[in-house]
Request: fold
Amino acid sequence: MIIAVFLSLFLFLVAPAAPASVEISGSPAAGGILKSSPCAEKILDRTVALVGTDAILLSELEARYRQAKKITPGITKAQVLQTMINRLLLLREARKIFPETMSDEQAIREFTDFKIRAFVVVPEDAVRNFYEENKTRMGGAPYEQVRGQIERLLKEKEINQRLQSYLETLRQKSYIRVFLANTPSIFH
Reply:
């Protein structure tokens, strides 16, 4: 009796889902055995990547992939996984500065503003050169009318380049392990 109570407590503490799928046949004193039901053999989820001590589960990847496919139909699971890894890396850095009371998305946004966006300045000559090289694409609009749009475009392009460079640095300093089959070499 004591062994059966200990065993069920152990199963509850170690694997909360296990008691529903494991039954004890007979009393332990009479040589009772553990029998698995068909549920016990079904894998509910698995880790597809580790980023430091953070795990990305297959169910999380599948959910993000379904969302991403709605916006970008040609996106692959590997690309979604790469984005999830990048997000975890940025969140880890953001949490070093910004409090837990801030949402993850807000912390990442504030961090990128603080670490990258604040240092990007687009020189006037770069805006002017872009305008001169792309006049025909702008339908002949005067420079003053499109200057702000060009500056925002060039600023976002520079921010993306710096962010990519920063993420590469974070990746080099981090432990990242991917367990998903057929992943591009960027993960290995």
